[in-house]
Design goal:
The protein is mainly α and about 140 residues long. Helices cover about 55% and strands about 0% of the residues. It is elongated and about 85 Å long.
């Protein structure tokens, strides 16, 4: 609301600003945004500049729960137990910890939103041994 109120003050009092294009340049925003703010101000007064309720369904997980989930993913990715973390595993973790169900498809969208890239690498077995691999390579075929 601060930016929109400032734009309307500039428009109303014309303080060294002659038009809405100059207001947009001064605020480093789009002219369309300034037009919308001024229009709301002219039609509804200062109350028209208040933030509107956010449309859409609220998120299932709170920001604190998302932070806990991010910590779990980072910790699981850096553990040396082998294997890999899959969408089903994350969905199960969310259900176990927060009692909230997510479809696997949405898990990947959630991860992308949190800044995780879903890169799969060749997994290593926890009991893998370099020595036995080298010995196997030396066996004549």
């Amino acid at each position: 609301m601060q930016e929109s109120a400032y734009a309307c003050l500039l428009f109303h009092y014309s303080l060294r600003v002659k038009n809405r294009t100059n207001i947009a340049k001064r605020l480093n925003t789009a002219r369309g945004s300034v037009n919308k703010w001024v229009s709301n101000y002219l039609n509804n007064g200062v109350a028209g500049l208040n933030n509107k309720p956010i449309k859409g369904r609220p998120a299932k997980l709170t920001s604190q729960q998302l932070n806990t989930l991010s910590d779990y993913i980072k910790q699981s990715a850096s553990s040396s137990e082998g294997g890999r973390l899959m969408g089903e595993d994350i969905a199960q973790y969310i259900y176990d910890q927060f009692n909230i169900r997510y479809h696997t498809d949405h898990i990947y969208k959630l991860l992308k939103k949190r800044g995780f890239s879903w890169i799969t690498s060749r997994s290593k077995h926890p009991k893998q041994s370099k020595e036995s691999q080298e010995a196997f390579k030396k066996v004549p075929s």
